[in-house]
Amino acid sequence: MTQQNVVAIYVASKFGSLMSGHTAVSVKAGKGIEGDRYFSDSARNRSSYKGQPDFEITLIESEVISRFNQDMGYSFHESDFRRNLITKGVRLNSLEGKTFTINGIELFGVRLCEPCASLQRRLGVSILPELVGKGGLRAQIKANGIIRVGDGLEYN
After folding, report:
1. Burial (0-12, 13-18, 19+ Cβ within 10 Å), 104
2. Could you give the percent of the chain with pLDDT greater than 70?
3. Contact indicator for 60, 115 with CB cutoff of 8 Å
4. Residues paired with 22 in a beta bridge
5. Residue ranges making up the domain that contains 19
6. With contact defined as beta carbons under 8 Å apart, do 122 and 82 qualify?
7. How many beta carbons lie within 10 A of that of residue 53, not counting itself?
8. What count of other Cβ atoms lies within 10 Å of the Cβ of residue 62?
9. Residues 6 or more apart in contact with residue 106 via CB below 8 angstroms
10. DSSP 19
11. Is residue 116 helix, strand or coil?
12. Is 120 exposed, middle or buried (0-12, 13-18, 19+ CB in 10 A)?
C-alpha cells in the first residue's frame, strides 16, 4: 500500500517573499496557516470561489514536481512551486469537492490550483501545457490543529 502523506511544508510570510520550509504549522479553521501571507486574522477570508474559501491552504504532489523537472530538464526546488503542502502518494485532483484529513484535521478540496502567469514569471520558463491539471489543490481548513511533515493524508 502506498503511503499518503505530507513530505514538506512551505509558507511565505509576505506577498512575493520566498517560501520558507517548516516541520510543522498551526492551521486555523476559516483563516489559513498562521504566518502565511494569506492568513486572515479576522473571520473574513481574502478570496472565495463559489462561496468557498480559496486561499486557506494549497497542496501539490511531489510526483508532479519530480516529473516536471525530469521531463523538462529542470531542477526546480519544490518550494519554487509556491504551494503550502507537498504530498506524496495521493492524487490531489481526486480530492476536489471532497473532504479529507491530515493529522485528524478536516479539510475540504475547493478547486484545482491551476498554474498561473505569476508562477510562470517566477520560474522563468514555460509551464504550460505541462502543468495544466497538475498544479495542485486549493483547500479549506475546517478545524484547528497542527500539520507536521510526515502526517498522513486520509480520505474516502
Report:
1. exposed
2. 92
3. no
4. 9
5. 5-155
6. yes
7. 25
8. 16
9. 99, 100, 142, 143
10. P
11. coil
12. middle
Q: Cell numbers of 39, please? A: 492568513
CATH for 38: 2.40.33.20
DSSP state of 33: E
AA letter at 144: N
β-pairing verdict for 145-148 and 153-155: unpaired
Torsion of CA 110, 115, 67, 27, to 10 degrees: -40
pLDDT at 145 > cutoff 70: yes
| The three grid cell numbers given for residue 66, joined into one nine-digit string | 519530480
Quote the number of domains for the chain: 1
Task: Show the cell assigned to 149.
Answer: 511533515
State pLDDT tens for residues 60-95.
999 999 999 999 999 999 999 999 999 999 999 999
Q: How far is CA 69 from the centre of its chain?
A: 18
